[in-house]
Design brief:
Length: 580
């Protein structure tokens, strides 16, 4: 949606919510007559600086952003708005701006601009829709709907693949609806999504041959029932029919086609690239104050996809038991699950992988001076990859396996101190790797740190030793070294200063690969309750036998928080208007 008609949409929704008949029917006695109009929120202005010696610049030397989140209260109507503009050129993002307005009154809320509504994890969740939406929640009933241009996730990761060259995507129109009844512990919901790419409307770019116009219809249902406040049963199921290429010349509708497929052909484009898949989960269990247990089933069909979601780990079926408990006045806590997972649900793979899965965290707190915790997970329910710093580079990856533990020992009354030892093993799948086959990156991280807190002198000191190993499919990187951080504050805690430095030795395939020195300075100044400023400077000096380089990165930020009441002007009986 172009920004030129975001403002008319906002005005339309405001007029739709405020017809004269409804305003007259409101009980204005409940409103603040002295302050009928209020303006609150915050506004932030920031900039970023970058400079490199010895290598090419990885980002723009200067960029800036502006962010505002004002809320207008007008005779009881809340109208929150949000605006963000960022002029950043680099390997992770292009310039973009977001504008949204969400007025509300009692159980009515409308959205206009950049809408982000989480209606169903399998159908529509996490994707920005540029358009309008409405949410109604009178008592036990709820209804949500949105319509507009759906943001294509491909456009969000384009610059990681092709630098500053933007992937071409189609204009994607979408409509989504949710209808439900009940409370948070007992409810029934129905969900619907229809999304379609316009083959004649595309964004600029140079990869049109790799991107096809898609179309999608998805239906879902969810429910939860709780009995005696202890026993609960819930389920969330979805079906998605998606056509991967609207322009495919191969038709599949004929006299022998199924009745369901023929009916679907009347609703949207059906051809050889069309597929119908299912996803869902179900829970049944008991919960008490210090104990809970439940059984869970989850299934996601191969190649399941909805244009209203970001990413799915598909072709899986899980049977798990969840357990949580606390003992000895919360000195022992456990929360985890375990079970069996298998793939090859449609029997088209050459082999089926069936494995035991587990996800759990155990904490031991025998005294306030000692804490021991351990975590293990070899499966994740999060479907969204993220950015991970691996060997001084950002990777777009998904976590598949985590093993680790932490031990913290506190001592000293006059001079509070603590020693922390931690070790973690993390496996990632590089989503955008060009390497065929194995794309797994195994990270081994070990830390030993000491912390000293001098409250009277307002000084916090931390030092530590660190070991990091990154095992790529084609190489092995190692790094070990030490770091020091010091934090303090001045001017009655209005000015906070943090300084840190670290030195590491680097190895590649167990051969010395130079060293690196990093430094950081952070300044935060709170001038008043309304104005805060911040400055962050980072320096990296990488020394190698082949080449050496330096990088400077800095960010500056100013934030202003406001809360203004516009009082009514009043006149007194003794006030006279005279003229000479």
């Amino acid at each position: 949606m172009k920004n030129s008609y975001l403002f008319p949409i906002c005005i339309y929704w405001l007029l739709a919510l405020c017809p004269s008949a409804n305003i007259q029917a409101q009980n204005l006695d409940n409103f603040d007559k002295e302050n009928p109009v209020k303006l609150s929120g915050n506004i932030s202005l920031g900039s970023a600086f970058y400079h490199a010696n010895g290598i090419e610049n990885k980002r723009s030397p200067f960029s800036y952003y502006l962010s505002a989140n004002p809320t207008i209260t007008l005779y009881g109507f809340n109208i929150p708005m949000s605006f963000t503009y960022r002029d950043q050129q680099g390997s992770l993002s292009n310039p973009f701006q977001r504008l949204s307005i969400s007025p509300s009154w009692k159980w009515i809320r409308v959205h206009a601009g950049d809408v982000r509504m989480g209606l169903n994890p399998y159908i529509y969740s996490g994707v920005v829709l540029k358009g309008g939406g409405i949410e109604l929640s009178p008592k036990l009933f709820r209804f949500s709907a949105a319509y507009g241009t759906l943001e294509n996730p491909l456009a969000q990761i384009d610059t990681i693949v092709a630098g500053l060259e933007q992937l071409e995507t189609y204009k994607r129109q979408a409509m989504t609806i949710l209808a439900g009844v009940g409370s948070s512990s007992n409810y029934v919901e129905l969900n619907f999504l229809r999304a379609k790419d316009d083959p004649l409307a595309t964004t600029p770019g140079g990869f049109h041959e790799f991107v096809k116009a898609e179309e999608n219809i998805a239906l879902g249902a969810a429910f939860k029932f709780t009995l005696f406040k202890r026993f609960f049963v819930s389920a969330n199921v979805a079906s998605s029919a998606i056509t991967a290429d609207q322009n495919s010349p191969f038709e599949v509708i004929d006299a022998n086609s199924s009745e369901a497929l023929q009916r679907l052909d009347n609703l949207f484009t059906v051809n050889l690239s069309t597929r119908i898949s299912f996803a869902g989960d179900a829970d049944v269990g008991l919960k008490f104050r210090h104990f809970g247990i439940s059984a869970n089933y989850r299934r996601i069909d191969p190649q399941y996809k909805s244009l209203g979601t970001l990413y799915f780990q598909e072709d899986l079926e899980n049977y798990t038991i969840r357990l949580n408990f606390s003992l000895w006045k919360n000195k022992i806590k456990f929360n985890g699950s375990g079970g069996i997972q298998r793939n090859n649900l449609n029997d088209l793979r050459s082999f089926t992988n069936e494995r035991k899965i587990a996800n759990g965290t155990l904490s031991l707190i025998p005294t306030k001076w000692f804490v021991l915790s351990a975590r293990y997970s070899n499966f994740q329910t999060d479907r969204t990859p993220g950015f991970f710093n691996v060997s001084d580079t950002l990777r777009y990856a998904q976590t598949t396996d985590i093993k680790g533990g932490t031990m913290r020992f506190r001592f000293g009354k006059k001079i509070p101190s603590s020693i922390t030892v931690s070790a973690n093993v993390q496996s990632l799948v590089d989503v955008l790797s060009n390497i065929e086959g194995n794309r797994t990156i195994d990270n081994y991280i070990g830390n030993l740190s000491y912390n000293l807190n001098l409250k009277e002198k307002r000084i916090n000191f931390t030092s530590g030793l660190q070991y990091i190993e990154n095992q790529f499919p084609d190489r092995n990187n190692q790094r070990y070294g030490a770091n020091i951080k010091v934090g303090t504050n001045f001017l009655d805690k209005k000015l906070k200063l943090n300084v840190g430095t670290a030195y590491h030795y680097n190895f590649e395939d167990f051969i010395a690969d130079g060293n690196s020195f990093t430094g950081q300075i952070k300044l935060n100044y709170k001038r008043s309750k309304l104005i805060t400023t911040g400055l962050n400077i980072n320096f990296l000096h990488r020394i190698r036998a082949i080449e050496s380089y330096q990088e400077w990165r800095a960010t500056a930020k100013v934030s202003y928080r406001f809360n203004t009441n516009f009082k009514k002007e009043t006149t007194t009986p003794n006030q006279n208007n005279t003229s000479n």
